[in-house]
Amino acid sequence: MAPSTESESRKLLNRLRDAMADGGAGQERLDRITHLIADSMGTEVCSIYLFRDNETLELCATEGLNAEAVHKTRMRLGEGLVGRVARNSRAINTANAPQEPGFRFMPETGEEIFSSFLGVPIQRLGQRMGVLVVQSKAARSFSEDEIYALEVVAMVLAEMTELGAIIGDSDVLTPLHRRSQTFRGGIGQEGNAEGRVFLHDPRVVVTNPIGDDPDAEMARLRDAIKQLRKSVDQMLAGEDDDDSDHLQVLETYRMFANSKGWMRRMEADIARGLSAEAAVEKEQSEAQARLRSVPDAYIRDRLEDLNDLSNRLLRILTGQGSETGAERPLDAILIARNIGPGELLEYGRSLKGIVLEQGSVGSHAAIIARAWAIPLIIHAEGITTEALNGDQILLDGDEGVVHLRPSDSVTTAFRDKLAMQAKAQERYTCIRDLPAETLCGTTIRLDMNAGLMADLPSLIGSGAAGVGLFRTELQFLIRSKVPRRGDLARLYARVMDAAQDRRVVFRTLDIGSDKVLPYMKRPDEPNPALGWRAIRVGLDKKGIMRMQLQALIRAANGRPLTVMFPFVAQFEEFSQARQMLLDEMEREKHLGHALPAKLEIGAMLETPSLAFAPRQFFELTDFISIGGNDLKQFFFAADRENEQVRRRYDTLNVSFLSLIEMIVKRCDEVGTPLSFCGEDAGRPIEALCFAAMGLRSLSMRPASVGPVKHLLRKSDLTQVREVIETAREEGQQTVRKAVLEWLKAQS
Ligand code: PEP
Ligand code: MG
């Protein structure tokens, strides 16, 4: 009989639980389950298909089809009706299956043509696990209640699979979270690491998907919802009334937390036999499946809110989650969907590696990972659902590959590779104290980029001449409130002490865009990368900039001081900022503080407009540094954080190299020293081409100094320049291929 009532559905779940409790291997359990579902639903066939890999489904158990076909019949994602259910994460219900688009007859299953077909996805929190199907000969359209009942069963199956209750001899029945898995992503920072997984936001595991007592489960859900609403109200009460952006987000939260539809759906799930947490997760899974296909970013964000609230609710119900107190292993490799620069700084540099499902090479979190030489892989799709705290993990940042729970042979090959790299590192150590002098006799100054006190010890070891970019905002990002002038002065003094007499270029606060200070109100901007950031904030909120300039003068305490202003887009902004610094010098003099023995005031060239600034700008600056990360994003109109567009444009594109050449020429005309401090300076081929275009000073992360110096020392810039000229004349889009071929011919 069809389970058309709530109690029928509950009965089916109870039978399912008994079938699971009866013990036996995973295969037997699956067989029992298909038998009892077919029996309860009154169908001739019930089959379970599970994913073998991300693309292939395998028939794992059946009641009614040919038993020989089990573990033999396979289909690709999207193929046939079963493949379509899996791909779209949506049920298919038809009384006339052969007429459905995509129908595929599978003779090996011995199936006669069954007219009716109902298939529902087996999925858990956005992770596709398989498809559950019932079929019957008679033309029958399954009722809403029947679809619902089968979905509930599929959800319980998903939970059981997650918990390892369905394990068998076949490959496909290997427990989840125990298989070796390989993920391919993008390279955020090269390098390799071996360690153990540490999840940024561990997920909650539901251990009791079936509820015994619907009334008790209902009461648990209501209590948890009450607690959730209270915490959302508290968050709202603690917010500053002026912070409308944040308030709006929280208001949407409150709206969801009070949503009757959400509550009603979860109550209906419980009435049909699910436990409170399984009901929350069922609604969450369905929302996630919808999320994948919604093109509208606003609606996707709202579904993300719902996702977040569901996680909070699950934590309340199970007492698990971020607050599990999982200890961070010493060899932690951090796994997260995404991470901001502030959060990453809180973890500190002891992480051995980072793997993100999202992320981008141009983000500041990636820059921090690079500065710390922590291998980073981005876009490793699905890793947050597969990895468990403590799993062994190998991160190959040179290839963009992650091996989760690797086999012994993979681990051995990986360790061999590490040993070979250690040898290459020795080669760089040998040239550490030699100049970056090219074969044609040009010496290029190599500096390092830094931002934290902890970066300074690398100065001596890397062979860098000094610090070409000190990103002062990192200090602001790791604090919970605005640092005081005295604290900053002490910190900058320590940086200068650590650098001994080497030059340190202090860049004033560059906040805004993705560098959000937790304690500063953020304007509601449609496009923060083009918004109120860096020098624009400094000139509008003079108090903070003045305080920072005073701290720098006091830190120098008579020593030479070098200050650089970020994100200057027009001459006027630089002259105003420069005047502010000169005014502070006057003020400090009046107060009787020692003035720097020498003061250099420079600008970052990060917007194409500045390359066309009047000659007076180039004359007034004591030096200029090209911020290639931003310059490139604005030159090509391609967001540095958007991997899809960022990768389209090569740094060695002839247009970009011509822009660099023009900046070199404008600086040469008035004798203003020029350097390049964007991430590209640390990539050997790019560094070589920049030097060939006339740059004589490059600033990069410490670990790049050795490889860049190594390549420069064995190259003749005149020849590289000729290769670039030829490629440019031939109308090549990028000179990369030509330069690589030339390099190959040299070795
Ligand atoms: C740049 O834009 O190249 C730069 C060095 O500044 P940041 O990466 O901090 O924006
Ligand atoms: Mg910049």
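qc> The two ends are 77 Å apart (CA to CA).
qc> done
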